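Hi team,

As requested, here is the filled-out complex form for the NA7 run. I kept the field names the same as last time so the parser does not choke. Let me know if anything looks off before we queue the next batch.

— J.
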Amino acid sequence: MAQSERAPGPVQASYDAVVVGGGFAGLFALHRLRGLGFSVRLYEAGDGIGGTWFWNRYPGARVDIQSLEYSYQFDESLQQEWSWSERYAPQSELLDYANHVADRFNLRTDIQLNTRVKSARFDDGADVWIVETDKGEVVRASFVVMATGCLSSTNTPKFEGLESFKGRTFHTGRWPREDVDFTGRRVGVIGTGSSAIQSIPLIAAEAKHLTVFQRTANYSVPAHNGPIPEDIVRDVKSRYAQYRADNYNTALGADWGYRTDTAMEHTPEERDAEYESRWQRGGLSFYGSYADILSDPAANETAAEFIRGKIRQIVKDPAIAEKLCPTTAVGCKRMCVDTGYYDTYNRPNVSLVDLRETPIVAITPTGVRTSAGEHELDDIVFATGFDAMTGPLTRLDIRGVGGVSLKDAWEEGPKNYLGVSVAGFPNFFIIAGPGSPSVLSNMLPSIEQNVNWIAEAMAYLRQKGFTRMEAEVPAQEAWVTHVNETAAPTILMTCNSWYLGANIPGKPRVFMPYLGVAPYIAKCTEVVANGYEGFALA
Ligand code: NA7
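And here is what came back:
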């Protein structure tokens, strides 16, 4: 019998909710649901909590949103008392923060580490889920809450000869816990997304030689990272609740000083002055520069050309600078935030291979062979990203009404209502799922909004004596259409991004996140005000 058809063993425990994943989403879901009196079991595959910040330990890994914003807001004393050492906290500090939160709110008693949820099947007669783990445990839960993250299913392209390589290999998203020493080694980094852009300067500083294999050049803006000035900390903390509320009321959910005027109503000099101020400010505030930056290709091109100008100034070899200049629209792929990325190409021990000119033919026992020849390497770092958004969900065997698997239901792309609920999968909720702002926003506040919404829905069901809640098909279809129609007129549709699933061969090309934090929250609020409009409650 195929594994997916095998009946799970006897049920060993029952909970109100099983939460899958112990990153920031899972931790808050556990806390919030427990606070409402629900019994909860949280399963985490890793041997520690922290999710993204547990797995992504590569050199230079840090958040690309300011830490004062990329942090929980649910507890005023937590946000007042915690202090960040840097404007963009490094991975280790984010992991410390996750562990601090787990201890502070006594979460560990309900967290089971080293346990991967394998399958979840809905028992239609009883309105419960039967959840099975890789440790052979079988538990019953009224609700399943997926906190599996957007970028947790790593992607290692199936290069010919991959297994034959005799040196060390790493994936940025599964970095070893112990320090990796690149001293004296010839290292290859494949990929130039955010993980590569953060790690390349540090690997280059250590390695004998670094070869970067670039398929698509990316836009990166300097982080200008460092300690957060005391007056800024004091100011934000003096009005934290309002600051958070103001950010929720924006398009992308972060404090990026959004202008409401358009780029094209200004002269080139005025635009460049604006972009220069964003460049000096650092980080992703570039997104806020003009209202039409993501919608008008001509406006977008002015920002693109500004950044290309910076690359040409920083990188001394004009041929290398040209290869590093992106040709896609700014923001079509998430912009990167770096410390010394472009300048790294001025080092004598760094070379750049443009895979558009000379594609990878194979990985060999001793390196990477492109159409131009062999690059001998001791180590290969795959900074090749993730099967984003849907991968972490569809790789589990999740079966709803009638035994239909989520993988099959989403064969043509993710379909859900508000990002949180899937028709045919009652009492099954997704945090930061496709169809929600998630990766097109500041993840942590978006996670908190989703968790609060789900927790309140569960409390509502309990209060009303309902045992079942699921998205109705027409509401789901309308939402999927709306998500796509919102992205359609923007530049977000114009490149091969992971937002579109285009980085994974064979994945349907569907725009997954929802563009617009403020309208999303308004819609979620409206749905509740109308008695969970679009949901079937029974
Ligand atoms: P990304 O942003 O998905 O970057 C992956 C990189 O790997 C990107 O440059 C890809 O090029 C490259 N890639 C993927 N497959 C291949 C193959 N087959 N050959 C050559 N190059 C390849 O992942 P990251 O981990 O850097 O960042 C993920 C997010 O984390 C980021 O957006 C931030 O939100 C934080 P491509 O662009 O597809 O041509």
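Two things worth flagging: Residues 322 and 495 are 19 Å apart (CA to CA). The chain has two domains: 8-153+387-537, 162-249+298-382.

Thanks,
J.
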